[in-house]
Write a structure and sequence with these properties.
Blueprint (H helix, E strand, L loop, with lengths): L2 E5 L5 H10 L3 E5 L3 H8 L10 H10 L3 E4 L7 E4 L14 H10 L8 E4 L7 H12 L9 E4 L9 H7 L2 E5 L2 H12 L6 E5 H32 L3 H8 L22 H8 L5 H24 L7 E5 L14 H10 L5 E5 L15 H5 L4 E4 L4 H4 L14 E4 L12 E4 L13
Parallel strand pairs: 1-2, 1-4, 2-3, 4-5, 5-6, 7-8, 9-10, 9-11, 11-12, 12-13
Antiparallel strand pairs: 6-7
């Protein structure tokens, strides 16, 4: 293995390319976005990830990584393109299909083709392999085809790409071995070989487990509001049981995995997945739940000023994919009563279709600060940051991330809303 071609230079493809390039391999990274290609060839990146800018600058300057609009002949091809969902929640594997077709002219006997994109069960066997066979490649002997799903946490991607266990599912045992050896060259964690469909399902179930657990916590929030219970305290105490691990509630579930992957299972087994579907319904209901709480808190104000803090689906990243914060903001914007200012220190203006403002401008004369992402900048907020600047110092913390003095500022946490009082104009 001397040269690797990585198709898709997003949140997974670019760090993957960087890790292999840093290990000494010649990498060509392929993306359809000319701006991304040009910036990478100048040693600059287009996403936020801890440690990535320094590595990219290093490997580009050393000539180990170059970006291109088209694939090149290589020994290994890694496909890391998006797999969004259609409006009907079925998987859109068009990018995977296009990427597979794009590498066909550059394939040769003995090459390894790995799909890292998250895909529905049997996509490798029923979609990807037939494309290669239709173009004259025997996927048993000519080309080694495997699925190796990414399993990383934004903010720790460069660490977890190396340290995490990798699941490699081959369309044949030999393909699993060949693809596994690709990762063994850089991974310090275990590399486990299995069948392609098992690897596909393992990734989907990892994220479905978390989605279902979050749904339980979010349902507890609604129950606790009705029964005047603090859900956060309930979770804290319940989790002291050695075999209990209730996740944390929030404004919904976002990102490229948790909000999408369960649908890939449902698509293939509708009647057999009622629990997974119910969890999706619960988590999808949380943006409306948040919007309704905001409406109640501001019901006596003619034109409430709301400072929305955070647009990403989790803290300390710039990723807004499937973010419930975006959905909440759009719902609030549809109500002409609200005057809304949005602040997110991690999001760039070209990522969104509405203006972003500074912290100072967002809180000026605001009646309510609505926290939708647990950025460190919000975790360290204190009363003095808000008193004297806001019209009424009230915070609705949907991420349970703040530690503001409750004797100075009114703070409502998403799991403890039974005591909410309507905001009055000062």
């Amino acid at each position: 293995m001397k040269k690797i071609c990585v198709i898709g230079l997003g949140y997974i493809g670019l760090p993957t390319a960087a890790v292999f390039a840093r290990a000494g391999y010649d990498i060509v990274g392929v993306d359809v976005n000319e701006r991304v290609v040009n910036s990478l060839n100048n040693g600059e990146i287009h996403i936020e990830e801890v440690g990535l800018p320094e590595i990219i600058k290093e490997v580009v300057s050393e000539g180990k990584l170059k970006a291109s609009l088209t694939p090149e002949v290589a020994d290994v091809f890694i496909i890391a393109v998006p797999t969004p969902i259609h409006a009907d929640t079925t998987a859109n594997v068009d990018y995977v299909i296009s990427a597979t077709k794009a590498i066909v002219p550059f394939l040769k006997k003995g090459d390894v083709v790995i799909v890292e994109s998250t895909i529905p069960p049997r996509t490798m066997d029923d979609v990807v392999a037939p494309i290669l066979r239709e173009n004259g490649f025997n996927t048993e002997h000519d080309v080694y085809l495997a699925h190796c799903p990414e399993r990383v946490l934004p903010g720790r991607i460069l660490i977890e790409l190396i340290e995490n266990t990798r699941i490699v599912g081959g369309t044949s045992p030999e393909a699993a071995k060949k693809a596994g050896d690709v990762y063994r060259a850089v991974v310090t964690g275990d590399v486990i070989e299995t069948e392609a469909v098992t690897a596909e399902m393992s990734k989907l179930m990892e994220n479905t487990f978390r989605d279902v657990n979050i749904a339980l916590a979010n349902e507890l929030v609604k129950i606790s509001q009705k029964l005047s219970v603090d859900a956060h305290k309930v979770i804290e105490l319940a989790n002291k049981h050695p075999r209990v691990n209730i996740h944390q509630p929030g404004p919904g579930v976002g990102g490229h995995c948790l909000a999408v992957d369960p649908y890939f299972i449902v698509e293939k087994a509708v009647d057999e997945s009622p629990l997974i579907q119910t969890a999706r319904t619960i988590n999808n209901s949380m943006p409306d739940f948040v919007v309704n709480q905001v409406a109640h808190m501001t019901s006596e104000l003619p034109n409430p000023k709301i400072a929305v803090f955070g647009l990403t689906y989790k803290g300390n990243i710039d990723d807004v994919r499937e973010s419930p914060a975006i959905e909440i903001l759009e719902k609030l914007q549809h109500n002409s009563r609200y005057q809304i200012r949005v602040h997110d220190p991690h999001v760039q203006i070209d990522q969104v279709s509405f203006p972003l403002v500074s912290f100072e401008e967002a809180v000026r004369d605001a009646h309510l600060v609505l926290i939708l992402a647990d950025h460190n900048e919000f975790k360290t907020l204190n009363a003095e940051d808000l008193i004297g600047k806001m019209n009424s110092p009230v915070v609705f913390d949907t991420k349970n991330c703040t530690n503001i003095d409750p004797t100075k500022v009114t703070v409502y946490k998403i799991g403890n809303l039974s005591t909410v009082k309507v905001i009055q104009e000062n």
